[in-house]
Specification:
Radius of gyration: 15 Å
Number of strands: 6
Order of helices and strands: EEEEHHEE
Number of helices: 2
Distance between the termini: 11 Å
Strand content: 35-45%
Largest sheet: 6 strands, antiparallel
Length: 140
């Protein structure tokens, strides 16, 4: 996979100071982290385009006039929710790619030992969020 956005490390709306906007390349398998959290593991922000290809270089391209966030993993959110430890990821590995395209995601905050996200990183009530993206065939 390749993308133009924040990386190479995972990043979130309130955690992206060390993730710079550039063109990055990775495998889906290398997008996972050592912890297990559904809907947040491996997130990348401020993405303009993303390509996913197979070994022959055939795949899809996702692009947006604005930006989107994404994650691509070999696990479903339910599978991640149901396990506790990173060493159990091999037990739920799938050949398929689970791609999440996010219009908005709540910031992480520091709720494990402190406050939640600052108000500007919360999803606002009574607010309409919109985004649009294009999916097209892609050959490398």
């Amino acid at each position: 996979m390749e993308w133009y956005g924040r990386g190479p490390i995972e990043n979130y709306q309130d955690r992206k100071n060390a993730a710079y906007i550039s063109k990055y390349q990775s495998t889906v398998n290398d997008m996972k982290e050592k912890y297990v959290r559904s809907q947040s593991m491996g997130e990348r922000c401020d993405t303009r385009w993303l390509t996913l290809t197979d070994k022959e270089g055939k795949g899809i391209k996702i692009s947006s006039a604005d930006t989107f966030d994404f994650s691509a993993l070999h696990y479903t959110d339910k599978e991640l929710f149901d396990i506790k430890y990173g060493h159990d990821l091999a037990d739920i590995y799938r050949a398929e790619v689970m791609l999440n395209l996010d219009c908005i995601q709540r910031g992480l905050g520091n709720a494990s030992c402190g406050p939640g996200p600052r108000p500007k990183y919360e999803i606002q009530k009574n607010t309409v969020y919109r985004y649009a993206f294009r999916m097209s065939p892609f050959t490398k």
